[in-house]
């Protein structure tokens, strides 16, 4: 394999770093170096923001129809570059190629098409005479320049979730992808360049310090991150110091509440898939299961049996596997650390070990016997691990479900319509699925409560995050 050195993408072209250090990118498939990346200096970030600020004077004044056309062209170009994107990302993430193609690249093209249309369907308070002798109207305007940081678990799709509403609203972007998975974001910027004014979409590479330079810069009117709670707190503090808006999509610890009246076999199949998909590296993963005590043994035995027979970990070309490698060595160590610190009252009833390989692969794992305040119940694991607890009453289920610092997503499994509605009201999470877990659509918002952050991705609410509202009041007589 040829080891190539990556470059930033600034002002519509690739650009070498201005004196920054370089670091190696390790493929989780092989455990070997596959590329070299620059670590953006302050000067690199400054140049990117200068470029974005210049472009905003043009892009920010385009009509919604012009923005729609550019975004639709980008969506088509993404599909034309599907194979290139899939191959590049699979090396960096260890994800399955068929999953990247369907769940990231094709889905992202659809998300861009949604925002292309949403740009032409802005809503607001109707123009009217709210004070005698005056006419009032609302203008929705772009914020200007935004700074964004994307994660490594779905690197292409998360980059699209960031840039699509920002560009649709008329903003320009400086994006910093994860230091372990930058290539698909670079390809995205490269194929977008012909459709947008030069400097509209810029990508700077680097580690955490590069991300800090992006979000602490004085230029952006909004900074956005998808990442850990710790990283989100740092971004919020940086934004507050500059009085910039912050958009935070942080961690999760989704409760999956299973009642005795559900279709157990269908629930097991759906929940296992939603838990182990992408090696559990998903903030909404169905990894914290709460089962009504009367079916606890039946459900647990059924889940173990289903996982043994049907949940397979594989390399990127394996079309029969559900998930691939963990993203990096640190993540593999983190997953192992949770199990090594497991309290004596808990039991590993399935899996629990890395898969012998040069890469970073881990068995599907199920843990029982945990208590509510144990680390594995309270802390996001981000790996292929399911925990199972029991409950006896609806109130106990709700109390355990809500008793975490996160508030991103949840699900309830029951045939009782009234109970489902009650839980959808009382679960303290930004998304509640009923008899399902993990599907998302562009038309509906995604975002959390509590320490899962604030602000919405997807939907018209996601577009509004990237706009400001101006009141224009005009006197009839002068």
From TrEMBL:
Transmembrane segments: none annotated. This is Betaine-aldehyde dehydrogenase. The active site is at residue 249. Residues 17-472 form the Aldehyde dehydrogenase domain. The lineage of its organism: Bacteria, Pseudomonadati, Pseudomonadota, Gammaproteobacteria, Moraxellales. Keywords: Oxidoreductase. PANTHER family: ALDEHYDE DEHYDROGENASE-RELATED. It comes from Acinetobacter boissieri. The keyword Acetylation does not apply. NCBIfam families: PRK13473.1 (NF010000). The keyword Isomerase does not apply. It comes from the Bacteria.
């Amino acid at each position: 394999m040829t080891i190539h050195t990556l470059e930033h993408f600034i002002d519509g072209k690739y650009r070498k770093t201005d004196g920054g250090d370089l670091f190696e990118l390790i493929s989780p498939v092989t455990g070997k170096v596959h590329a070299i990346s620059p670590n953006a200096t302050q000067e690199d970030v400054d140049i990117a923001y200068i470029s974005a600020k210049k472009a905003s004077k043009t892009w920010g004044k385009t009509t919604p129809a012009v923005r729609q056309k550019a975004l639709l062209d980008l969506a088509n170009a993404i599909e034309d570059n599907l194979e290139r994107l899939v191959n590049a990302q699979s090396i960096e993430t260890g994800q399955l190629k068929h999953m990247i193609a369907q769940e990231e690249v094709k889905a992202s093209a659809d998300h861009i098409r949604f925002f292309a249309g949403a740009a032409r369907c802005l809503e607001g308070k109707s123009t009217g005479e709210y004070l005698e002798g005056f006419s009032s109207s609302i203008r929705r305007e772009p914020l200007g320049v935004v700074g964004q940081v994307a994660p490594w678990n779905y690197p292409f799709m998360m980059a699209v979730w960031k840039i699509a509403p920002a560009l649709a609203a008329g903003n320009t972007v400086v994006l910093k992808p994860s230091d372990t998975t930058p290539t698909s974001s670079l390809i995205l910027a490269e194929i977008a360049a012909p459709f947008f004014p030069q400097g509209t979409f810029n990508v700077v590479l680097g580690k955490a310090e590069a991300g800090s330079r992006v979000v602490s810069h004085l230029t952006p009117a909004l900074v956005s991150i998808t990442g850990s709670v710790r990283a989100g707190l740092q971004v919020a503090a940086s934004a507050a110091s500059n009085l910039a808006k912050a958009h935070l999509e942080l961690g999760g610890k989704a409760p999956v509440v299973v009642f005795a009246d559900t279709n157990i076999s269908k629930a097991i199949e759906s929940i296992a898939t939603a838990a182990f998909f992408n090696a559990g590296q998903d903030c909404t993963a169905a990894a914290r299961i709460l089962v009504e005590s009367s079916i606890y043994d039946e459900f647990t035995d059924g889940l173990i049996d289903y996982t043994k027979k049907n949940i397979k970990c594989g390399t990127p070309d394996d079309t029969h596997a559900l998930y691939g490698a963990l993203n990096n060595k640190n993540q593999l160590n983190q997953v192992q650390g949770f199990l090594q610190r497991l309290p004596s009252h808990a039991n590993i009833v399935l899996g629990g070990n890395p898969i012998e390989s040069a890469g970073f692969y881990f068995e599907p794992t199920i843990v029982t016997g945990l208590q509510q305040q144990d680390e594995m119940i309270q802390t996001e694991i981000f790996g292929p691990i399911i925990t199972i607890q029991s409950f006896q009453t609806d109130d106990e289920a709700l109390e355990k479900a809500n008793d975490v610092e996160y508030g991103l997503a949840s699900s309830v499994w029951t045939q009782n319509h009234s109970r489902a509605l009650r839980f959808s009201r009382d679960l303290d999470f930004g998304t509640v699925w009923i008899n399902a877990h993990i599907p998302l659509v562009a038309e509906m918002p995604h975002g959390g409560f509590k320490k899962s952050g604030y602000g919405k991705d997807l939907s018209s609410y996601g577009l509004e995050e990237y706009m400001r509202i101006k009141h224009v009041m005009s006197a009839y007589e002068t």
